[in-house]
Amino acid sequence: MGTSTNYEEPYRPRAVSTLNATARLCGLPRDLDAKEMVARARKKTGLRDFGDEWFLEPLEVLVDSINTEAQLTPVGQWIQRARLEAALAVRLRIEELLERHPEILDIDLGGIVVIAGLQRTGTTTLHRLIAADPRSRELRAWEALDPLPGPEGARVGRARMAERAIAYMAPDFLAVHPIEHDAPE
To answer: How far apart are CA 90 and CA 92, in angstroms?
Structure first.
């Protein structure tokens, strides 16, 4: 069995390998299409207004890069399509929420700390150390995945499912970046 760092023979759970092979036999997947994903997000949410649509051109560039450079498996493409459509749906829902409650923009968030750095430089450890201070308010993984108001249990459940999916599909990744559904992210 290969590992997730062996790019010639990357690790894949048997079920994922079987699904990839079956999809290829069926001529799937087809390339991602930004306009189609925008339409699907609108249909899924029943909303139309993205607000400022500055992001559409960068989305096209990203999708073109995924299609021409990423060499994703069918499952990888499905995951990316779902992630991009979910992000578009969140943007639609945020615009709708701000339309109903513009006062949200007036909330004082106080001092904000942003931690950024290259991979493997200790940013996650630093973030979790700062988050341990009871005077801070960190962003939890489940909030980052689903940032809009809603039942906390459902939001936590989706994050727990995402955590399990990563652990199943890429177990070595957890050694590189710890992922916990309720940890600071």
So the answer is: 5
Q: Where are the domains of the chain?
A: 1-107, 108-185
Closest residue by Cα to residue 74 from 35, 38, 30? 30
Q: What is the pLDDT of residues 97-133, one digit of tens each?
A: 999 999 999 999 989 999 999 988 999 899 999 999 9
Residues in contact with 163: Cβ distance below 8 Å, sequence separation at least 6, in sequence order: 141, 179, 180, 181
Amino acid at 161: M
- Residue 1: burial class (beta carbons within 10 Å; 0-12, 13-18, 19+): exposed
Cα–Cα distance for residue pair 45/112, rounded to 1 Å = 31
Task: Tell me the backbone φ, ψ of residue 184, rounded to 5 degrees.
Answer: -60, 140
pTM: 0.87
